[in-house]
Design a protein that fits this description.
Layout: H1 2-17, H2 19-33, H3 35-39, H4 46-79, H5 82-87, H6 93-125, H7 132-156, H8 161-187, H9 191-203, H10 213-217, H11 224-250
Length: 255
Protein backbone atom coordinates (compact mmCIF):
# COMPACT_ATOMS: atom_id res chain seq x y z
CA UNK A 1 0.00 0.00 0.00
CA UNK A 2 2.91 2.34 0.79
CA UNK A 3 4.47 2.21 -2.73
CA UNK A 4 1.03 2.64 -4.31
CA UNK A 5 0.32 5.82 -2.30
CA UNK A 6 3.83 7.12 -2.99
CA UNK A 7 3.28 6.56 -6.71
CA UNK A 8 -0.01 8.44 -6.66
CA UNK A 9 1.51 11.38 -4.74
CA UNK A 10 4.50 11.43 -7.07
CA UNK A 11 2.15 11.64 -10.04
CA UNK A 12 0.36 14.52 -8.33
CA UNK A 13 3.63 16.38 -7.78
CA UNK A 14 4.72 15.86 -11.37
CA UNK A 15 1.41 17.15 -12.72
CA UNK A 16 1.54 20.10 -10.36
CA UNK A 17 4.97 21.09 -11.69
CA UNK A 18 3.77 20.85 -15.28
CA UNK A 19 3.63 24.33 -16.85
CA UNK A 20 0.61 23.52 -18.99
CA UNK A 21 -1.31 22.45 -15.91
CA UNK A 22 -0.45 25.75 -14.25
CA UNK A 23 -1.45 27.75 -17.32
CA UNK A 24 -4.78 25.96 -17.62
CA UNK A 25 -5.53 26.52 -13.95
CA UNK A 26 -4.68 30.23 -14.18
CA UNK A 27 -6.73 30.61 -17.35
CA UNK A 28 -9.70 28.91 -15.76
CA UNK A 29 -9.55 31.18 -12.73
CA UNK A 30 -9.25 34.23 -15.00
CA UNK A 31 -12.31 33.13 -16.99
CA UNK A 32 -14.30 32.69 -13.80
CA UNK A 33 -13.30 36.16 -12.64
CA UNK A 34 -14.33 37.61 -16.00
CA UNK A 35 -17.91 36.62 -15.19
CA UNK A 36 -18.21 39.93 -13.38
CA UNK A 37 -17.65 41.77 -16.67
CA UNK A 38 -20.45 39.85 -18.35
CA UNK A 39 -22.81 40.56 -15.48
CA UNK A 40 -22.36 44.29 -15.93
CA UNK A 41 -24.19 44.17 -19.26
CA UNK A 42 -26.76 41.56 -18.30
CA UNK A 43 -30.25 42.56 -17.31
CA UNK A 44 -32.78 40.19 -15.80
CA UNK A 45 -30.68 37.04 -16.11
CA UNK A 46 -28.07 37.76 -13.46
CA UNK A 47 -28.08 34.36 -11.75
CA UNK A 48 -28.31 32.39 -14.98
CA UNK A 49 -25.31 34.09 -16.56
CA UNK A 50 -23.02 33.63 -13.60
CA UNK A 51 -24.02 29.97 -13.43
CA UNK A 52 -23.64 29.33 -17.16
CA UNK A 53 -20.29 31.09 -17.49
CA UNK A 54 -18.86 29.80 -14.22
CA UNK A 55 -19.82 26.15 -14.57
CA UNK A 56 -19.21 26.13 -18.33
CA UNK A 57 -15.69 27.50 -17.95
CA UNK A 58 -14.93 25.12 -15.11
CA UNK A 59 -16.12 22.14 -17.16
CA UNK A 60 -14.21 23.12 -20.30
CA UNK A 61 -10.90 23.74 -18.55
CA UNK A 62 -11.05 20.61 -16.41
CA UNK A 63 -11.96 18.44 -19.39
CA UNK A 64 -9.01 19.80 -21.38
CA UNK A 65 -6.70 19.30 -18.41
CA UNK A 66 -7.93 15.74 -17.85
CA UNK A 67 -7.44 14.82 -21.50
CA UNK A 68 -3.94 16.29 -21.55
CA UNK A 69 -2.80 14.54 -18.39
CA UNK A 70 -4.40 11.15 -18.96
CA UNK A 71 -3.40 10.78 -22.61
CA UNK A 72 0.23 11.77 -22.15
CA UNK A 73 1.33 10.51 -18.76
CA UNK A 74 2.17 6.92 -19.68
CA UNK A 75 3.66 8.00 -23.02
CA UNK A 76 6.03 10.38 -21.26
CA UNK A 77 7.07 7.64 -18.87
CA UNK A 78 7.95 5.43 -21.83
CA UNK A 79 9.77 8.19 -23.73
CA UNK A 80 11.89 9.09 -20.70
CA UNK A 81 12.54 5.38 -20.03
CA UNK A 82 11.42 5.79 -16.42
CA UNK A 83 8.85 3.08 -17.05
CA UNK A 84 11.63 0.48 -16.87
CA UNK A 85 12.59 1.67 -13.40
CA UNK A 86 9.00 1.51 -12.21
CA UNK A 87 8.14 -1.94 -13.55
CA UNK A 88 11.41 -3.38 -12.22
CA UNK A 89 10.35 -2.63 -8.65
CA UNK A 90 8.17 -5.02 -6.57
CA UNK A 91 5.08 -3.27 -7.92
CA UNK A 92 2.81 -4.80 -10.52
CA UNK A 93 2.06 -3.03 -13.77
CA UNK A 94 -1.57 -2.82 -12.79
CA UNK A 95 -0.72 -1.09 -9.51
CA UNK A 96 1.57 1.29 -11.40
CA UNK A 97 -1.19 2.21 -13.86
CA UNK A 98 -3.85 2.66 -11.17
CA UNK A 99 -1.42 4.66 -9.03
CA UNK A 100 -0.76 7.01 -11.91
CA UNK A 101 -4.51 7.33 -12.49
CA UNK A 102 -5.04 8.22 -8.84
CA UNK A 103 -2.28 10.83 -9.00
CA UNK A 104 -3.83 12.26 -12.15
CA UNK A 105 -7.27 12.50 -10.56
CA UNK A 106 -5.82 13.95 -7.37
CA UNK A 107 -4.44 16.84 -9.42
CA UNK A 108 -7.75 17.34 -11.23
CA UNK A 109 -9.74 17.11 -7.99
CA UNK A 110 -7.62 19.72 -6.22
CA UNK A 111 -8.00 22.13 -9.14
CA UNK A 112 -11.74 21.47 -9.31
CA UNK A 113 -12.15 22.20 -5.61
CA UNK A 114 -10.27 25.47 -6.00
CA UNK A 115 -12.35 26.49 -9.01
CA UNK A 116 -15.59 25.48 -7.29
CA UNK A 117 -14.64 27.44 -4.17
CA UNK A 118 -13.95 30.53 -6.28
CA UNK A 119 -17.20 30.05 -8.20
CA UNK A 120 -19.32 29.78 -5.05
CA UNK A 121 -17.54 32.75 -3.49
CA UNK A 122 -18.42 34.81 -6.56
CA UNK A 123 -22.04 33.73 -6.32
CA UNK A 124 -22.16 34.72 -2.66
CA UNK A 125 -20.46 38.01 -3.45
CA UNK A 126 -23.09 38.90 -6.05
CA UNK A 127 -25.91 37.64 -3.87
CA UNK A 128 -26.89 34.76 -6.11
CA UNK A 129 -28.45 31.81 -4.26
CA UNK A 130 -26.58 28.51 -4.24
CA UNK A 131 -28.86 25.50 -4.66
CA UNK A 132 -28.34 21.77 -4.46
CA UNK A 133 -28.41 21.76 -8.27
CA UNK A 134 -25.18 23.79 -8.26
CA UNK A 135 -23.54 21.27 -5.96
CA UNK A 136 -24.84 18.42 -8.12
CA UNK A 137 -23.43 20.04 -11.28
CA UNK A 138 -19.97 20.28 -9.72
CA UNK A 139 -20.13 16.80 -8.21
CA UNK A 140 -21.32 15.06 -11.38
CA UNK A 141 -18.61 16.83 -13.38
CA UNK A 142 -16.10 15.05 -11.13
CA UNK A 143 -17.52 11.67 -12.14
CA UNK A 144 -17.40 12.67 -15.80
CA UNK A 145 -13.71 13.54 -15.38
CA UNK A 146 -13.13 10.07 -13.94
CA UNK A 147 -14.60 8.49 -17.06
CA UNK A 148 -12.57 10.69 -19.41
CA UNK A 149 -9.40 10.03 -17.46
CA UNK A 150 -10.04 6.28 -17.65
CA UNK A 151 -10.52 6.55 -21.42
CA UNK A 152 -7.21 8.40 -21.73
CA UNK A 153 -5.37 5.84 -19.63
CA UNK A 154 -6.95 2.97 -21.57
CA UNK A 155 -5.73 4.38 -24.86
CA UNK A 156 -2.29 5.36 -23.55
CA UNK A 157 -1.80 1.82 -22.24
CA UNK A 158 -1.19 0.62 -25.81
CA UNK A 159 -1.00 3.67 -28.12
CA UNK A 160 0.82 6.97 -28.57
CA UNK A 161 -0.05 10.28 -26.93
CA UNK A 162 -1.52 11.77 -30.11
CA UNK A 163 -3.81 8.80 -30.69
CA UNK A 164 -4.84 8.75 -27.03
CA UNK A 165 -5.69 12.45 -27.06
CA UNK A 166 -7.63 12.17 -30.32
CA UNK A 167 -9.69 9.19 -29.15
CA UNK A 168 -10.38 10.79 -25.75
CA UNK A 169 -11.53 14.05 -27.35
CA UNK A 170 -13.69 12.08 -29.80
CA UNK A 171 -15.16 10.10 -26.91
CA UNK A 172 -16.03 13.35 -25.13
CA UNK A 173 -18.02 14.68 -28.07
CA UNK A 174 -19.55 11.32 -28.97
CA UNK A 175 -20.47 10.73 -25.33
CA UNK A 176 -22.38 14.00 -25.12
CA UNK A 177 -24.12 13.27 -28.42
CA UNK A 178 -24.76 9.57 -27.78
CA UNK A 179 -28.46 9.97 -27.00
CA UNK A 180 -28.96 12.25 -30.02
CA UNK A 181 -27.13 9.77 -32.27
CA UNK A 182 -29.38 7.00 -30.97
CA UNK A 183 -32.52 9.05 -31.64
CA UNK A 184 -31.44 10.07 -35.15
CA UNK A 185 -30.40 6.53 -36.05
CA UNK A 186 -33.77 5.24 -34.88
CA UNK A 187 -35.50 7.45 -37.46
CA UNK A 188 -33.46 6.01 -40.31
CA UNK A 189 -34.99 3.44 -42.63
CA UNK A 190 -31.67 1.62 -42.90
CA UNK A 191 -31.19 -1.29 -40.53
CA UNK A 192 -27.43 -0.81 -40.72
CA UNK A 193 -27.61 2.81 -39.56
CA UNK A 194 -29.99 1.87 -36.76
CA UNK A 195 -27.62 -0.85 -35.61
CA UNK A 196 -24.68 1.55 -35.78
CA UNK A 197 -26.55 4.14 -33.73
CA UNK A 198 -27.38 1.58 -31.07
CA UNK A 199 -23.78 0.35 -31.00
CA UNK A 200 -22.48 3.89 -30.47
CA UNK A 201 -25.03 4.53 -27.76
CA UNK A 202 -24.29 1.39 -25.77
CA UNK A 203 -20.51 1.34 -26.27
CA UNK A 204 -19.80 5.03 -25.73
CA UNK A 205 -20.18 6.49 -22.23
CA UNK A 206 -23.33 8.59 -22.02
CA UNK A 207 -21.60 11.74 -20.77
CA UNK A 208 -24.77 13.80 -21.11
CA UNK A 209 -25.97 12.05 -17.93
CA UNK A 210 -23.35 13.98 -15.97
CA UNK A 211 -24.41 17.38 -17.30
CA UNK A 212 -26.47 19.08 -14.59
CA UNK A 213 -25.59 22.63 -15.60
CA UNK A 214 -29.11 23.28 -17.03
CA UNK A 215 -30.58 22.18 -13.69
CA UNK A 216 -28.31 24.62 -11.89
CA UNK A 217 -29.12 27.44 -14.31
CA UNK A 218 -32.87 27.14 -13.71
CA UNK A 219 -32.62 25.98 -10.08
CA UNK A 220 -34.43 22.76 -10.94
CA UNK A 221 -34.87 20.06 -8.33
CA UNK A 222 -32.95 16.78 -8.71
CA UNK A 223 -33.92 13.48 -7.12
CA UNK A 224 -31.25 11.92 -4.94
CA UNK A 225 -31.89 8.55 -6.57
CA UNK A 226 -31.03 10.05 -9.96
CA UNK A 227 -27.73 11.41 -8.63
CA UNK A 228 -26.87 8.08 -7.06
CA UNK A 229 -27.67 6.22 -10.26
CA UNK A 230 -25.50 8.60 -12.30
CA UNK A 231 -22.60 8.34 -9.86
CA UNK A 232 -22.73 4.54 -9.88
CA UNK A 233 -22.88 4.54 -13.66
CA UNK A 234 -19.77 6.71 -13.82
CA UNK A 235 -17.78 4.60 -11.37
CA UNK A 236 -18.87 1.34 -13.02
CA UNK A 237 -17.85 2.58 -16.46
CA UNK A 238 -14.56 3.83 -15.06
CA UNK A 239 -13.91 0.48 -13.40
CA UNK A 240 -14.45 -1.41 -16.65
CA UNK A 241 -12.12 0.92 -18.58
CA UNK A 242 -9.41 0.71 -15.92
CA UNK A 243 -9.65 -3.08 -15.89
CA UNK A 244 -9.20 -3.17 -19.68
CA UNK A 245 -6.28 -0.74 -19.41
CA UNK A 246 -4.56 -2.97 -16.84
CA UNK A 247 -5.00 -6.05 -19.04
CA UNK A 248 -3.56 -4.30 -22.11
CA UNK A 249 -0.77 -2.66 -20.13
CA UNK A 250 0.31 -6.00 -18.69
CA UNK A 251 0.67 -7.39 -22.21
CA UNK A 252 2.58 -4.42 -23.62
CA UNK A 253 6.19 -4.91 -24.65
CA UNK A 254 8.32 -1.83 -23.85
CA UNK A 255 11.36 -2.90 -25.86
Amino acid sequence: MGPFVALALNGFREARRNRVTLLVAIFALAMLLSTSLVLEVTVGTFDRVITDVGLGTMSLMLVLLTIFLSSGLISREIERRTIFLMVSKPLSRGAFLVGRLMGNMLTVTVLQLLMAALFFLMMRFYGSPISTAHLAAVGMLWFELWVLSAVGFLMSSFSSQMVSAFVTVSTYFAGHLASDIYALAGRSKSDGIQALGKAVYYLMPDLSRFNYRPHATYYASIASSELLSTALYGMAYTGVLVALAVILFNRRDFR
